[in-house]
């Protein structure tokens, strides 16, 4: 039975946290483990997308998330945060990148800051590989965007809404052709927009 | 911890050392002649048997001790090991020496003893057996 | 951000077929755009105040925060426990106290003739969460160190009094077991010291002097601020001094995930204290009222 540590306040991470850390074996013990993860975190901030052993990637992901969330929370004028950034980023120009590029990028983000993907392995003996990347990186996406599939429910509904909207537009044009008053025209336009909104909500 | 240097061994003192088992050193807290002399000479009594089925003594248990070359019986009136809530835990393992009929050898106890000892000792006392409750009469303070 | 996107889309009259922005849109539709702007400004003003009100409570009521161990989390059980704790708090007054505070606990016991037992001592540890929260009191009575642990929400406790409200430099004072007896000796009939309202909790900065070894713990390897380090160094051997550096763990302050797993995130803390805030506030008001009544009654009796 434990009591929560009261001395520190942390922001909640938006990734799934394992109850216990992976047992990454290292001859130097826990210190060596952190040093190994430090290389990964530095590489992630530098290259924004890296491929590596899945377990190491999963472990380093938490540290990268925490580093970014601390940077967002306290900013670059907070000495302890600066010390942590100094430890985790071995290349010092990356500290500037963290505070000047990544903090504005993720400031209003309400998702996780990183993405972790499993790679299929060809051979049984090869360790499971993963790809760890920052969101908003400049590379082409790794996964096809399936949300554009026409058969998905929301796309079907949107299609129907668009069809209705066009239909009403045509009707309005037809009414315009029959030369009705301009005021009534405007009312129908606003009414149409509201209808469209309702459709989208549905 | 009133161990003399002779008994200090280089091994670490872990939680297990607080268990009262055979060969544990105890502290006599009454004013019996033999007990006072043993503590003054730096030869605290050594537990050579615990009269219960676990072999680990706790509050209210009877122990057989070797004290200054003699065998005496004693009642544990305060232990050092971890205790459940509301049960006091003391800095030393305290005993009160008694004879075979349950009569204490001294006539005063100069440390506080736990209140729950009243119930425990009354439960252990039978009509034609040993009367342990005499210890309660010589206690100076309960906590 | 997404409201801007929506505005663009409206202007351009074209739809983006994407699931995620769609969800966000539906939220945006619920409130019109000028309102959104005012809300965000209000939040910016209110947030620091809210934080100071609610999250300071974690020091006064640490047992309301659940166990940070992920396997043991259970939101329903935690909520039920919180309700039970509030019910118990409405029955007896559980005062604000910290490690280092001198307290007296009166509890019912079937063993003694008066059926009551009072113990006074310094709080050397406060741990556990929920209904299992405990604290340990230590005192030296008749030259014998005595410690009693109590459950904070034990129904057999009749009264918890705070005799002297203060903090120490550390979160645990187990080194008092190895310190000279004067640091943990308090008379059992000590009179309570009443602090005036709205004063900060005084911090007792005494540094204790330890007895010669053997000790209960390896105090030289710890960084407790309440131990007189210079004196402690004279008590240990050269080999122990050599081993101090070996047992330091300087990398732990950089282990961000270890810290994260040991804490409850701020968002969850806010939720918890927002849930119990109103009831705790009422209890505090009730306490103040009862105090006033007591002060009013006393002179009547003497007259």
UniProtKB/TrEMBL annotation, chain A:
Keywords: Ribonucleoprotein, Ribosomal protein. GO terms for cellular component: mitochondrial large ribosomal subunit. Residues 176-202 are annotated as: Disordered. Residues 193-202 have a biased composition (Basic and acidic residues). It comes from Nezara viridula (Southern green stink bug). The lineage of its organism: Eukaryota, Metazoa, Ecdysozoa, Arthropoda, Hexapoda. This is Large ribosomal subunit protein bL17m. SUPFAM superfamilies: Prokaryotic ribosomal protein L17. One of its GO terms (molecular function) is structural constituent of ribosome. Belongs to the bacterial ribosomal protein bL17 family. GO terms for biological process: translation. It comes from the Eukaryota.
UniProtKB/TrEMBL annotation, chain B:
This is Large ribosomal subunit protein uL14m. It comes from the Eukaryota. SUPFAM superfamilies: Ribosomal protein L14. One of its GO terms (molecular function) is structural constituent of ribosome. GO terms for cellular component: mitochondrial inner membrane; ribonucleoprotein complex; ribosome. Keywords: Mitochondrion, Ribonucleoprotein, Ribosomal protein, Transit peptide. GO terms for biological process: translation. It is found in: Mitochondrion. The keyword Ribosomal protein applies. It comes from Nezara viridula (Southern green stink bug). CDD domains: Ribosomal_uL14. Belongs to the universal ribosomal protein uL14 family. It holds the Pfam family Ribosomal_L14.
UniProtKB/TrEMBL annotation, chain C:
Keywords: Mitochondrion, Ribonucleoprotein, Ribosomal protein, Transit peptide. One of its GO terms (cellular component) is mitochondrial large ribosomal subunit. One of its GO terms (biological process) is translation. SUPFAM superfamilies: Translation proteins SH3-like domain (SSF50104). Gene3D superfamilies: 2.30.30.790. GO terms for molecular function: structural constituent of ribosome. InterPro entries: Ribosomal_bL19 (IPR001857), Ribosomal_bL19_sf (IPR038657), Translation_prot_SH3-like_sf (IPR008991). It is found in: Mitochondrion. It holds the Pfam family Ribosomal_L19. Belongs to the bacterial ribosomal protein bL19 family. This is Large ribosomal subunit protein bL19m.
